[in-house]
Amino acid sequence: MAQTEKKGGLLRKSSASKKPLKEKVVLMYDEIFTTEDPSKCNPRFWEELFLMKVNLEYLEGKLEALDGEELMKIKDNINCLFQHCIQALGEEHPIRVVNALQTLCALIRGVHQKNKSTSGFDIINMLVGFDKAELCMKNLMESLDSLLCAEGSESLKSLCLKLLLCLVTVTDNISQNTILEYVMINSIFEAILQILSSPLSRREHGYDAVVLLALLVNYRKYESVNPYIVKLSIVDDEATLNGMGLVIAQALSEYNRQYKDKEEEHQTGFFSALTNMVGSMFIADADEKISVQTNEAILLALYEAVHLNRNFITVLAQSHPEMGLMTTPTSPIPTTPVTPLGTTPPSSDVISSAELPLDADVQTSNLLITFLKYSSIVMQDTKDEHRLHSGKLCLIILTCIAEDQYANAFLHDDNMNFRVNLHRMPMRHRKKAADKNLPCRPLVCAVLDLMVEFIVTHMMKEFPMDLYVRCIQIVHKLLCYQKKCRVRLHYTWRELWSALINLLKFLMSNETVLLAKHNIFTLALMVVNLFNMFITYGDTFLPTPSSYDELYYEIIRMHQNFDNLYSMVLRLSTNAGQWKEPASKVTHALVNIRAIINHFNPKIESYAAVNHISQLSEDQVLEVVRSNYDTLTLKLQDGLDQYERYSEQHKEAAFFKELVRSISINVRKNLAFNTLSQELLLKEFSTIS
């Protein structure tokens, strides 16, 4: 007996002796694509259509094959199909609802392909007709809201979210997507929150819900009042905020785990053996091979939560067991394969205070630690555009955290100590730190470590100036808090001072190349003012008097770098070029550093001469420093502990517009509506009479 093959809506016998037979649903689609009303000959047409398995490929292809004029001719039938889809969403028969949801997805995507300026018709008019648009979209949003909030099928909820993601991402620039006006008017915000607050719903749909919310918040956020922004900013329900935090933490943890697995696989492989054999000439190439696709969508969700909602700051510090060490609890198998949006979303929510009590033997973690680990990975390689965007967004999130009073309180809390294993870039001159030797410290130490790591590892020809500026600003804001609250942090400040001095050295060594692209004096001024902050206020926040002595020791030891910097800025500030003003600011900022060098250097030389010592030890230099503080005169510099607060709209609007565009394209590309097999659905709905 000849076997039957199925392809593109056609049923054909392998003998090919007969004409190909079309599926009934395909024949029904063809009727819609005529100018006649398909229900004239068959009054039960629409009723029967939604009992048929949707052929997404055929329906979308048919829509895309038509030009603007041809599509306008069948506009009435398209409107009718759209309206009947919405009506079917209210039916009790779940198969009809599923087919209606999938048909809507195909309709929206297919029609939007034609929504070009040349075709001269409006998408809303094409889908529903202007006269019925408001009522139809209201009914659609109300139906989706009801399905998302109902106790019913998880498959239906999954499809509802996918339809909404389809609606939102159908254009690259979501702010040009006029359909979203109806999503603003008929809000589904509460439905999204309900998903995030329920452990079961969160496990199944949390990822899609969080990405959807992040995108909706970015619809015309600078041009009009976006209700999703307003509502997100005032959410104070602990279960909801924690639920959102758990979804984000799980997605970031999954990325960290994938990266770690690839890293371990890479280190144990042949290439690692070869690298060890021939030295570290291949380190850069080797590192490039360890790449896991970044997840800007989930990072955007974290940013919006931190930036808009002050209550979310508490979620950052919410302790839970280390996700990488956990075994996933048994949970119901999802009724639909989870669709990747950028990266594979987590398959289950492994944390909930009710599900997993803290174990004394398990390393505790929190969202902030997971985020810092994620940041340490994506900030390693900024040559790739996606990682550059991710790295920038990580630093923007850290900027918001560093400005928040409550966040600073738990960052600096001596009673909240954690071991944070940040990823460090392979470098020839340093050994890989052993994970087990990491001390337990306040979380601000990990933030400072991350900043120091970035400073040390990105001095290269393609200099990421913007990221360096943000990095120094974060350090400055943390110091301002420490000075204000007199927090004496036990941190290895020498590593920071050394990194900053090496950064100044790099700027001077590459003056010509860098000045062709960047105003390096802005960055140099910020670095010098960090030192001024330590010099002027260090006695209020450095842990011990000896730490303050060590600061002076480092300045004196590395005085040649400060001397060279002074010579460079003096040369440029006395010329009438474009750098005169920014260079002269650095000249003035160096006054106290130069005073320290000029005051102590002669005293050290005198001490060496009197005691007949050719080279002084660190202890001997420190002794000279301590003995001669009294005669040192420094100028009081104003504004060192002041900073301009972060403002998205005025400075970052272009970045976020481009980022959201990139996320929208990525989400649309990875969105799958046909993940529900008809067999699986029939099994799930087998109880229907």
From TrEMBL:
Record's keyword annotation contains Transferase: no
Cellular location(s): Membrane
Primary location recorded for the protein, binned into one broad class: membrane
Pfam families for the chain: ARMH3_C (PF08427)
Keywords assigned: Membrane, Transmembrane, Transmembrane helix
Armadillo-like helical domain ranges (all copies): 435-671
Family matches, as InterPro entries: ARM-type_fold, ARMD3-like, ARMH3_C
One term under GO cellular component: cytosol
Full protein name: ARMD3 protein
Organism name: Grantiella picta
